[in-house]
Every structure is written in structure tokens, then in C-alpha cells.
Amino acid sequence: MRLSMTSMAGFIVRHRISVIAAWAVLLAVCVVFAPRLSEVTRGGGFNLPNSESYRASSVLQEEFGQSYGHTVQLLFHHASMTVGDPVFKEQVEKMVAEVMRLPGAARSVTYYGTGLPDLVSPDGTATYALVTFTGTEEEVQKQVPAIREIASGYEGMEINVIGGPAFDHDLEETSWQDLRTAETYGLPVVALILLLVFGSLVAAVLPALLGGISVTVTLAVLFLIGHWTAVSVFVLNVVTMLGLGLGIDYSLFIVSRFREELAAGVSVNQAVKNTVVTAGRAVAFSGAAVIIGMSLLVLFDIVFMRSLGLGGMLVAAFSMLVAVTLLPALLALLGPRINTARVVPQRFLGGGGRFWHRWSQAVMRRPALYLLVSTGILLALAWPVKDMRAGSPGVADLSADSDSRRGIEFLAEKWSPGTVSPIYVIVDTGSAYGVLDADVLRGLSGLDQILEEDPRVERIETIAGLHLPADPTLLADPQRLQALAVQDPVAAASLASLVNVSGGSSKTVARVMPVDPGSSETRKLVKELRSRILPSVEGLSTTTVMVGGSAAEVVDFTDMLKGAFPYLVAGVLMITYLVLLLLFRSLILPLKAIFMNLLSVAAAYGVLVMVFQEGWGDGLLGFKAPGGILPFVPVILFSILFGLSMDYEVFMLSRIKEEYDRGSSNEKAVALGLEKTGRIITTAALIMIVVFGSFALTETIVIKEFGVGLAVSIFIDASIVRVIMVPATMKLLGEWNWWLPGWLDRLLPNLSLKH
Question: 265: helix, coil or strand?
């Protein structure tokens, strides 16, 4: 089967008005839905179903009422009063009562109602209350603004609204703020670059316009998808980042080739057809490479990664479709008017091709030297990857001005960092009232002793520390429980928070407060708890024990990615090789392209380690290095970068192959191909760098890492790989570049997409 780009080009030329009208109708509909994406997005999305940490989280929610998405934390502090002041108490109880009148509010816990000392800061100046809501997580999240409105009415009392719903609400706000920041810095620079490259206002507007269209349509489709599956809030930034970069790049390739065809003297209709068959073909394969890379992320059963994979696939597909259908229709309509509204004289726009021709010849005169030096640079940049450490998402993903971030930082300062992110050890005895069994209490006491001596642990809370009688009937006798509440209300309240009393008292939870929750040492502690410490504790051997909490979630997430990453890499490499083999009908060119792309991706990883782990230049980007790389970032970056790198590979090699097929020698074809694509590739890369770099100026660490990684990789790809390593290797390989055994040539389907 032969897919004909020529037939498609002819159809677009004949029905240009209909094509434009169809896209206009689609855009009109999408403009209504795209801004509403935030209605269906959600924060978090890092949970790994069926993992131990996920099971522990489910038990905490179902048995202990400690649900991340349903519990709001109200943090109270006053400049001149302490928690024991009657006025302080009155204001706390009054606000909690007001919050309890909101829809869905079901249960509240305060220091004044329970006497729990942990609810008061060690210096006695702050306290927090817990309010649990019913309903969906999205419904609870929508109550956060109302709670903050109530808090604003207490003059003199500093009240922070934190907890899972507030964190996710602020994360969504930060994502929108980050998007506005990136657009403010990036779009004007992109517009200036396009004006300087094309010199014409009309030609410059088209790529930017079509990039915006691809993003708008994608966001609208994601809004519809979000009604039947979870969509991560981070998809907004990643889709916009990719969509603007891809949409503008693809349009740049198409517009440049169209202007070149017009300059050669062909008719408008023929210029459109030639453009679609050549540059359009390259765009189609480039888009396919990005879609393939992103599609593998959809296979992960994690909301965050699945959302980004789906969003990346959609925006790549729409960017490609816009570039090969709508843009050719607009060009057929505009014709020579593409060069009107000139702002830069034509005489300042020429000459670039001659520079790239001479440059390629210089590289090919000493190919081994250039290849050796460029490879050495990339390997040096990639060297820090060997020391890469895993980081964890957290408060740094929020704006510094957000209520949640200020509250969480204040909580960590007044209590301890471990209070914010404890490790949960859940013990399931499997029998009613089993948590007060003598063996279980002895085991918990032993766990207390082991962890209190561990320098990584600040403190631990278990029912063994309450010194309750080893009498299972205590929990079965309401009168004895009531007597305990009268005699020792703090012990009774602590018991209720550590035992699933309403669920049969078969489970208990130990809260371990680490010294530094986000450190690698805490993650090592989680692994040791699972593999060595808990199995060795006498008294717990007959129980089922689970370790949860944010540190455990990072451990499970990282271990899963380590296991899956090699398969993702292998899948991307094999599919990419097949696509390039079908396009260029060569066994060698795809291997060379994959090798060089791996080098550029590894170099980008190395720069990420230097910036986000070692802190090189973090002050310039306005953040403090977290000391590790978020574990999912390298995986997602690989999927994105391998596709993006293929953009320039396909565009350049397609032009080189055109010249080679016309009878040019291998060396001449390389020189002519770089002459005709070097300026456009450099411009496209510069635009990508500006778009991605603008996201490096945002406040969210996740988006910063994506922005820096993508910008650095594109810079390396355009400045070293495409203009040095490609001509050097093609010179060294000579005619072997185009080698394909005859028998394989006959077996391969003809998907060259021409004529």
C-alpha cells in the first residue's frame, strides 16, 4: 500500500476553502472548552496502584479516616497569644464550627476537643485542627476557597489552610500561574525570532497562529477526556510547552519550503504540492516519532504519566495535522501574499545557506577530529548521570506565595519536617481487638526501641507508647473505653487515632517522624523497614505489616520506573529504528541517528543533575536545588526528547536524501542538504529553546526540570549533533549511509509518502 502525499496535497489545493472552514468550525468549538480544562484536572496522580504504599494509603483512608483528598488542616498562629489563651481558643473553635457548616463537612479534631499534645507546637504558639469531608476529592477541593474566605474574617489570627485538598487546589493555581509566566516571557521572543527569520509579518504570524491552534484543540479534547478518566494538572503546562514548540517548528518547516518553492518560480498550486510532498512528509514522520515516544507513557498505570503521554500524543498529532492540512490550505489561499507586510528588508535575509554549505565542507574535511571532539563534549556533559539521585515531589512544586506552601513550611518550622511527612507502619493483626494482644504490644514496643535509636528518626508514635493494659477486652467494652476517656482523655484520643476502633480494632498504625522526610536516607529507612527491621521484630511475625507515606510512595514509584525504563527505552529505539528504516530505506542511517540521539539525551540528563541535584546556576533560575531529580522526569524526557530529536534528523536527512536521489554524491548531498536546512533548523531550535526555556523560569520544580531538560537537549541537538556529528559521520560512512540489501528493499512496504 502506498500512502500518497501528492493526492492529499492536490485535494487541499482544490478544496482550500473547505479545509480552512472545517478547521475554523473545530477551533470555534474548542475555544469554548479549552479554558475549562482546569475543571477536570487533578493534583497528585503519582500513586502506583497495587504497590505497598498505595495499599497502606487505602487502609489509612478507610480504617483511620486519614484521607489525603478528604482532610483539610487548619493551622492557627497569633503574634501575641498562645494556644492556652482563652481568646485564642475561642477563635479556633469558632472557625472550626463555621467550617463544619460547609457542605460535606463530617468530622473535626481539635486540641481543645481531644487534648492531644501533638496538635500543639512545642513552643505553645500554634495549633492545628483537622476537618474531614465526605464526597469526591474534587468536591472537597472546591471547598478550599470557601474555607479561606472564612479564615480571612479572623483579623489578627494567622490561619493557613493546608492538607491534600488545599495542596492540590494551590498546585492547580500554580500551574496556571506558571503557564502565564512562560507565555509572558516566551511568546514575545518567539514572535521576534519569526519576524527576523521571515522578514514578513504574514509569514511570521502563521507558525505562531498554528501553534496556538494545536494547543487549543488538544486542551479541548483533554477536557472531554477528563470527564471519564483522571487527568493530571501538569498536563496543561506540558501540552502547552510541547504544542507551541512542535506547532511552530512544523509550520516553520512548511512555510520555509513553500517560500523556497515560490522563489524557484513554480506556481502557487505546484508550490503547495511540492511543499506537502517534501516538508510535509518530513513533518508526518517527525510527528509519528513524537507520538510513538509519548504513546509508551500511556502504558503506565499512573495518572500523572498516563496523562502526559496522552496529552503529548494528542498535541503532536494535532500539530502534525495542522501543519500538513490547514497550513497548506492557507498557503494556497495566500500565495505570494505570504511575503507581504515586510518588516525586514530582503537583503538582510540571505546568505545563510552559503555559510552552512562552507561549514559542512569544513567538517567533512576533518570528520574524525570533529566527531571525536563533539562526542567527547557530550560524554563529559553526560558524566554526572552516574551520580543521579531520586528526588520527591512536594512543597517546592507550589508558588512561594501560596497559602499551602507557607503553611507547610510554618508547620515544619514549628513542629518538625517529619510531622509534615511521616512514615506510616500499618499492622494488621487479622483478628478483632487484636491490637492489644500482648505479643503485638511487645512487638510495637520493640519497634519503638529500634527506631528511637536510629539517627534518621526524630520520634515514633505507637499504642505501645500509651502504656495501655495488655487486655484485648478493653476495646470490646464501651464502658471501659468511656472510663479511660474520663480518666485519661489524651490516651483515649491517641488510642482512637492509632487504632481502627470502629473497624473492629484489628489494625493499628505507627507514625514514624523522620528527621529529613525528603532525603535519600529516609528512603533507605523505608527499604530497611520492609526488608530487615520489621521482619526481625518479635511479636509482629504473625501480623501483616505495610509501610506507607510519601517516602514509601517515592520508593515504590522509583523502583517501578527502574524496572520499566529499560523496556520503554527498548520500545522507543526499536519503533524509531523501524520508522526511519521505512523513511530512508537504509540500515545504517537509523542506527546512526539513534546513537547520536542517545548521546544528546544522556548529556541533557547530565545537565539536569548539575542544576537540580548539585545546584549549579539554581540562583539564576530562582529556586533552591532540591538535591535530586524527580524519578519520573528522566523517563518522560526520554520519550519526549527522542521524538523531538527526530524532528531535525528527519528534516535534514530528508533534504540530503532528496539531493542524493537526484544524483549528487554523498558528500555533495550532505553539503546541499545542510545548506538548505541549516538556517531553518537553527531557527526552529532557537524557538524551541525559548519556549522550553521560558518554562524553566516558572515556580514548579517539575515544570522547571522539564523546561531545562528540553531546552538543553534541543540546544545540544542543534548546535552539536545536527551541524557537526551528522556531516562528520555521513562523510566517514560514505556510500554505506544508503546501504540496504536488495532482498530487504523488496520486502519492506513502500511508505515513503511520495507520489
Answer: coil
Between the CA of residue 452 and those of 418, 526, 719, 746, what are the distances in Å?
A: 14, 15, 55, 72
- Say yes or no to pLDDT of 350 above 90: no
Beta bridge mates, 41: 231
How many Cα atoms are found within 13 Å in the side-chain-facing hemisphere of 278? 25
pLDDT band at 30 (very low <50, low <70, confident <90, very high): very high
The partner residues of 159 in beta bridges, in order of sequence, read 76
Q: What are the backbone angles phi and psi of residue 617, rounded to the nearest 5°? A: 75, 10
> Which residue in the block uniquely carries the three cell numbers 494545536?
214
Give dist(CA 720, CA 144) in Å, integer: 49
Q: Which amino acid is at 315?
A: V
Q: Tell me which residue of 479, 699, 716, 434 sits closest to 601, measured CA to CA.
A: 716
Q: Which three cell numbers stand for residue 202?
A: 504574514
Q: What angle do CA 700, 694, 621 make, to 5 degrees?
A: 60
Residues 6+ apart with CB under 8 A from 318: 213, 214, 217, 218, 243
Q: Helix 303-321 to helix 632-661 angle, to the nearest 10 degrees?
A: 20
Q: Which residues 6+ apart lie within 8 Å of 123 measured at CB? A: 414
Digit-coded pLDDT (tens) for 195-229? 888 878 888 888 889 989 999 999 999 999 998 88
In a 3-state reduction of DSSP, which class is residue 107?
strand
Query: Distance (Å, rounded) from C-alpha 615 to C-alpha 604?
Result: 15
H helix runs in 585-631, sequence order: 588-608
Say which DSSP state 587 is in.
S
Angle between helix 701-716 and helix 164-198 axes, rounded to 10 deg: 30
Task: Give residues with Cβ within 8 angstroms of 552, minimum separation 6.
Answer: 52, 53, 56, 423, 424, 526
Look up residue 338 and give its three cell numbers: 505570504
Going edge to edge, which strands form the sheet with 157-163? 105-109, 126-133, 71-78, 157-163
**Could you give the dihedral angle defined by the CA atoms of residues 306, 307, 308 and 312, in that order, rounded to the nearest 10 degrees?**
100
Q: Which residues share a beta bridge with 108?
A: 131
Instruction: Give alpha helix (H) positions in 226-279.
Output: 235-263, 268-275
Q: 403, 148 in Cβ contact below 8 A?
A: yes
Alpha helices in 620-665 (DSSP H): 632-661
List, for residues 393-418, the tens digit of each pLDDT value: 777 777 778 899 999 999 989 988 88
Q: How far apart are CA 551 and CA 511, in angstroms?
A: 13
**Closest to 204 measured CA to CA, from 254, 247, 252:** 252
Query: CA–CA separation, 348 vs 343, rounded Å?
Result: 11
Residue 25 has pLDDT above 90, yes or no: yes
Cell numbers 538556517 correspond to: 679
Cα distances (Å, whole numbers) of residue 81 to 30, 77, 85, 86, 408: 53, 8, 6, 9, 21
Q: At what angle do helices 666-695 and 726-733 cross, to 10 degrees?
A: 150
Q: How far apart are CA 561 and CA 540, in angstroms?
A: 31
Q: Strand, coil or helix: what is 79? A: coil
DSSP letter (8 states) at residue 717: I
Which tens digit of pLDDT belongs to each residue from 57-81? 889 888 887 777 788 999 999 989 9
What global pTM score does this model have?
A: 0.83
Q: Which three cell numbers stand for residue 257?
A: 519550503
- Grid coordinates given for 131: 476537618
- What DSSP designation does 154 have? S
Task: Of 432, 426, 684, 497, give the one whose Cα is nearest residue 119.
Answer: 497
